[in-house]
Amino acid sequence: MTAVVVSTPIAGVVQVTMNRPDALNTLTSDSVAEFRSVLADIAADRSCRVVVLTGDGRAFSAGLDLHGYGDEDRIAAEGTVGRMLSRQRDIAGLAQQLHELPQPVIAAVNGPAAGGGLALVCASDIRLAATSAVFAVSFIRAGFSACDIGVSWLLPRIVGAGPAHELMLTGRRFDASEAHRIGLVTAVFDPEELLDSALAKAQQIMLNPPLSVELTKQGMWIALETPSFDSSVEFENRQQVFTALTEDRGEATAAFLERRPPSYRRR
Is 230 helix (H, G, I), strand (E, B) or coil? Predict the structure, then answer.
């Protein structure tokens, strides 16, 4: 059984479903490799405008499989320190790859998202949750540092340093209501409404030109690292010039004025 299922629920939207429901969609060496291959294909797919990420069954993802990640033979062959560093880079690279996709990623958090699962939520661009969703940093409860898979960088930027530090130092569980209150997710839905709501959000994004969306995703995350207001404005000035000169910019204006759906060519 494939660990990651890829589907196209509507034109332009690729749904990526973590598919180890009996194991709460925990991550193993094989599933991470499969996941990373899927993301590489999506990054090169110009027909994909938006990605929706979710989990099968009752969980989004409970993080790493504590029953065994599945690369013990490689640790024996390569040595503990070197292989563990390679393992760590493989897992963290999954969050980096998701974060760096040119397409916006909507996390549809259908259930528990803990440890590495929370990292995938944070690495997404828009986060929606079902009322059944539960979150936890978790790494620290398993005896590791809470700074893992990009969470120490992403979570404070999403919810603010104060809430992030408290959640990271305690490792406590928190529900969808609290996640909404602190800004980790932008909306909470009944479980049966979650995916339809995520697809509706994807359709809203696709009303905008593809290149404009890609540059906006890139720019909004870069702005979090830009050292000054003036630097950000200069970066934005160039984005405006690039998008103003595309064919799709004219189509966006015409579609708006004529009150019709746009037809973009990414040109």
Answer: helix
